[in-house]
């Protein structure tokens, strides 16, 4: 992995937009990029921005919550940013499927009141990474450079000092565990133990034999119930036939009517009363116009004659009116002449019907109205005649029944019928009870079969879980064996790299001959000549600093990862000799790309001369405007004083 560029917009002291071109020159010897500035100029902010771009919230620690992370982002927005926005963008090259691809990760955030909205963009070769879901981009970035391993490559003077001052080597112990992957192995072992515990808890007690026994009993009860249902159904059919035969005999002997002669007599009286009532009503109808319905042709001719008679009566009335009107007008009225009256009389004569006059005792219109009722009267007569016939039939039936009535003749048939009905009812009651028992048995069988299937599945799952628990146990054993082997191999490599680095940095070359790392506690022991242990108190302050740097270098080399090295102010507590050794033997060789952050007082002219053959680019940063923003100057490697580019973002 090689860092290509870092772009900061309104991040911390870097107001406006600043860009660092970090790609080393093609010359393999020029692996170093220097970032030089006084205290408070923004060197630590540079290192923080790289971590933030790669890890986001994880850059602040594994247990940092989202609210705390957002507060941190809010504080890192430059105070002079008008739109209250900031971003960090890191471009780097890394291997992907055998190809070296250019990745760009950009984290931007904007203040919304007291909260922050963050966005992440991730590109490969200038296009968004679409083969990985956006929600997994953070995980993918951490796979490229795990956060635990990055502390071996991105570290500052404070971390070096912490390791140097730690008499118990706690910091180095954690770093060694992270390097060896012991923390991951411990987590995996813990997960396997938790899985085994939970799978045992889910096992439970399953009584398959008890369920099978209950199921067989329920099935046996159902068979017996169904057999009894079949027997009762046959018996019910036989009793139903017997009851039907008894009913017929009972009816032949007088039936239900024979049970009460008084009821029969009362019914006969009611029918005769209805007959009398209907007969009188029919007589009333035939005393009216109803008989005309028997002679429809005669009724038609009579109606025609009535119409003629009504016309003749009208003509006579007109003649009488004209004569009366003429007499009333008299001779003095010149408006009406004799001719007028003659014409009126002629009109009256022409309107008279020919034929003889019909003598009527009443008005023809009244007679015609009566005759119009004949059709309705005919319907009423027909309806009443049908009702009368039905009543006469009922009367005849009742009289026959009374005539054939013999007291006590149906009592025997009735007793037989009652007995048959009683037995039939008892059988049906028992049949219903058995059918209810069969229904319950079927429901019980269904429930037991369901429970049996679930239990069988649970037993199968239990067997599979047992198999998985066995695999988990074997995996735990394999992890233990793997840990033992990898620890031995890695610790041997770590010891070799440490001795090589430490011997090249300290002035007392023969001080440390070996380093022993306890494979269980990972505590370090420095061994001198003849196997004598060297305690940390025997090392000078500078040697302890170089001890920490050497161990970080050795850990990085032992990891086997080709990652860039970012070192922040490593020279602060070293004397001149040790600084010279560090710049000559460590910085150029620690990685294929080294970004060194140091103060202008640390990088003295003699040290600058030592490191200059390995420097591909040098940046000088300084706070301006009262320390509120940062100015970056890019210098050539050959001439420290030549200004190539100045970035002064506002």
From TrEMBL:
Coiled coil among keywords: yes
Keyword Secreted recorded: no
InterPro entries (UniProt xref): DNA_S_DndD, P-loop_NTPase, Rad50/SbcC_AAA
Sections of the chain in a coiled coil: 374-485
UniProt KW keywords: Coiled coil
Rad50/SbcC-type AAA domain span: 5-280
Cited PANTHER family: ABC TRANSPORTER ABCH.3 (PTHR32114)
UniProt-listed NCBIfam families: DNA_S_dndD (TIGR03185)
Name the UniProt record assigns to this protein: Rad50/SbcC-type AAA domain-containing protein
Record organism: Sinisalibacter aestuarii
